[in-house]
Every structure is written in structure tokens, then in C-alpha cells.
Design goal:
Length: 411
């Protein structure tokens, strides 16, 4: 290499990546076919409508969940799942300290208590042994999150849940196509939640779906996202309070089209993710999470970690150097473990207050919570973005960029 090629682009050298995918063509004929049919309809309301029914049919071909509610977002799907459990106020739901706010919003709105547990130091998935130590008589449910498409150890989760009589809500928002012991994620727990958000494997801009094979939870599941109206019997006399999280026919049309791409998208991401993970794991100075034993990741993104002391610049500086080389990604996946967010540190859940705590139904104080493994991971990780239209050449250049920077900045 020339001196310019050896010098990081952040310091005036030549950028390695020259073949980044500048435009991701996510939608086309399958979505247009459904949208064209949609505009001929008299109504765009979701209930028993052509596009939503087709969405459900295609979804069940991939994820055989008998009772399903398509809804407005992945966050909505999680809220519906939590609400369907009908837990008494003050009940506790265990969630990993690294997740999205969407995992916990529904818990708080149902007047329940998110109990955060630490994570595996490499994958960021729920540490089941840590979760076990946080179970109390008030614990009623556990929510494993398949982070970045890498499945949780569902055998351990289900064993813990069975031992303590906990409901299991699988957060599959980042894990379309991931599998656990040969079965798609979401089919092991009591309720499964998926996302059609703009940034997920499959997208209709925003949307989601929640499903279950439990008859007791499935009867009336849709009511929990539809103002608790009974669309079968008719009438508007809801017996309890539920939000409006309904999907619309335009969203369903695009989502149904996206589901025809499911297997191709997942297969390409797995090919790319495994290739990139293997190459980066071979480089000195990086630690790369492996796929969970017994599972297959669908690689929403990759989470390599910079080994402390391996480079002479900070993790954030290294992330910026990668961006200058043309690598798509960033540093920390999230700024801190979720309980470190201002909303939790201030207990500001309802107009600056937490009525549940004021009523004596919980003594939880998020200001006293610490999660060493989650904090360690977020201080070290790099978030490397992937999508199915990135070329093999781009992946080669990403590997070359990491190699160049690790060599140049070696401590």
C-alpha cells in the first residue's frame, strides 16, 4: 500500500470503501401488486379486509401462530401482548438492560414494573442466570429480546419461566427469520411480537404483528389493540380500557408484499453476516459475538467489540475513523443501558411522576441499578450495519477498512 492508502481517511488518507450501496431498493412489484389492488377497495379499514387478510395468510405460512393481531408498530405489538396478560398493577416483567424503549413502554402504561436484567457480555442477549436472581413474588412475565437477530437461549428462558410460572413474551422485532433449534423465533414463548419498522428486515414504514398459539390469550387478542371493541359480535361497549393500535390497509398491502421476500432477505443477511463475523473475529483487537448455540441469527446488524488496550484511540474515535473509510455504522448501539435513560433516572413516566411507586405498589429505584456487562458491552461495541443489497465487494472493503485501522492504530 502507498502512504495515502495506509493513512486513515480521518487523517487525510484514501478511504477504503468505494462500493457502498447508495440506494436500497426495498419495494417493487410484490408491493405494487398489493397496493394496486388496495386502491380498488371501497374501504381501507383493517378488519376482515383483503390486504390485512393476505398479510395474515402469508405471515402464518412462515410463523404458524393461530391468533394474530396486525398493528401499527412493533412497540404496539409488545403493548398488546403485555395488556393481553391482564396482570395486576405492580406486577413485574423482566427485560434485558439492552433493548429498545418499545420493549418497556407497554409495561409502564399497563402500570407494571420493568425489572431489568444484565446481558451476555458478547451477544447482549438476556443473561438468564442474572434474570433468575431478580425474580420476586411479583414477577409475572419475562421478555427475551433477540438482539440484532441473534436468538436468545430459549431453552434456558423457558426452563426459568416454567419453574416460576412466568409468561414469556418474545420480542422478535430485530429477528425476522432467526431460528432456535430449527424453529423460527417467536414460536417458543406464550406471545411473539414482530416489527415492520422502516429499519427492520421487512418494512412497511411502520407496523407490527403480535401472535400466540395459546387459546386463552388468543381469544379476543385483537381487542387489546382495537379499543377493546368486539369486531365479531359488533357494538361499541368495551368492558375494559384498550388503546387503538390498528394497522391500515396500505400498511398491510406493503407488509404482505414484503413477506414474499422474507426467505431471500434472511438467507442473504445470514451469508453476509457469517462471512463478515468470521473475518472480523480473526483480526487482533476485536471480539465478535458468535451465533447462539442451537440458534441461527438473521443478522440485523453486527456488534463487534474493540478490546480495551488494543488500539491507541477511543472506541468513539475508532467508530468515526471507520465512517470516514466509508463503513456504514456507528459506535455504541444505544447510549447506555435502558434504565440509565433520563426517563428512568427521573422516574418520569406520567407527568413527572410514577403513581405506581407513590401508591406503594413498587419500591423500584432505577437510580440504584447497575448492569456491569451491559455497561461494558456498550462502552466497547461497534454497530456495523448490514442489509441484503450490500455487495460482496463492499463486504471485502469493510474487512479491509477494519484491517487497515486496527494495524494503524495498534497500541
Amino acid at each position: 500500500m502507498s502512504a495515502a492508502e495506509n493513512t486513515p481517511a480521518a487523517e487525510g488518507g484514501e478511504a477504503i470503501v468505494q462500493h457502498a450501496c447508495t440506494r436500497r431498493r426495498r419495494w417493487g412489484a410484490p408491493e405494487l401488486e398489493r397496493l394496486t389492488a388496495m386502491v380498488e377497495q371501497e374501504s381501507l379499514f383493517y378488519w376482515d379486509a383483503p390486504q390485512t387478510n393476505e398479510l395474515l395468510r402469508r405471515f402464518r405460512e412462515l410463523y404458524p401462530l393461530e391468533h394474530c393481531m396486525p398493528c401499527s408498530s412493533g412497540s404496539a405489538s409488545l403493548h398488546i401482548a403485555v395488556a393481553a396478560l391482564q396482570l395486576p398493577p405492580g406486577s413485574e416483567v423482566i427485560v434485558p438492560a439492552i433493548t429498545d424503549m418499545g420493549s418497556v413502554i407497554g409495561i409502564l402504561y399497563q402500570q407494571l414494573v420493568p425489572v431489568f436484567a444484565d446481558v451476555d457480555p458478547l451477544t447482549g442477549n438476556l443473561d438468564v442466570s442474572d434474570a433468575a436472581g431478580r425474580i420476586t413474588p411479583q414477577t409475572k412475565a419475562i421478555m427475551p429480546v433477540h438482539l440484532a437477530g441473534n436468538p436468545c437461549d430459549m431453552a434456558a428462558v423457558m426452563a426459568l419461566a416454567g419453574e416460576h410460572g412466568l409468561a414469556v413474551i418474545e420480542d422478535c422485532a430485530q429477528a425476522w427469520g432467526a431460528t432456535w433449534q430449527g424453529e423460527k423465533v417467536g414460536l417458543q414463548g406464550d406471545l411473539a411480537c414482530y416489527s415492520f419498522n422502516e429499519f427492520k428486515h421487512l418494512s412497511c414504514g411502520d407496523g407490527g404483528i403480535v401472535g400466540t398459539n395459546r387459546e386463552d390469550l388468543g381469544r379476543g387478542l385483537s381487542k387489546w389493540g382495537d379499543k377493546h371493541y368486539d369486531r365479531v359480535a359488533g357494538g361499541r361497549n368495551p368492558p375494559t380500557l384498550s388503546p387503538n393500535y390498528r394497522i391500515s390497509e396500505p400498511q398491510s398491502a406493503v407488509a404482505a408484499g414484503q413477506l414474499t421476500r422474507h426467505d431471500v432477505i434472511v438467507a442473504r443477511r445470514q451469508e453476509m453476516g457469517r462471512r463478515l463475523a468470521a473475518a472480523l473475529a480473526a483480526l487482533p483487537g476485536l471480539e465478535v459475538p458468535a451465533e447462539t448455540p442451537g440458534g441461527e441469527s438473521s443478522f440485523w446488524f453486527l456488534l463487534p467489540q474493540v478490546v480495551p488496550g488494543a488500539v491507541r484511540i477511543s472506541r468513539d474515535e475508532f467508530a468515526r475513523a471507520l465512517q470516514a473509510e466509508g463503513v456504514q455504522g456507528q459506535g455504541a448501539y444505544i447510549p447506555s443501558p435502558v434504565p440509565g435513560y433520563d426517563v428512568f433516572q427521573n422516574h418520569d413516566f406520567f407527568a413527572g411522576r410514577w403513581p405506581l411507586r407513590e401508591a406503594g405498589l413498587t419500591s423500584m429505584d432505577y437510580r440504584k441499578q447497575h448492569f456491569p456487562q451491559a455497561e461494558r458491552l456498550l462502552a466497547r461495541n461497534l454497530t456495523v450495519l448490514l442489509h441484503e443489497e450490500m455487495s460482496d465487494r463492499y463486504l471485502e472493503e469493510v474487512i479491509a477498512a477494519f484491517t487497515k485501522l486496527l494495524r494503524y492504530y495498534a497500541a
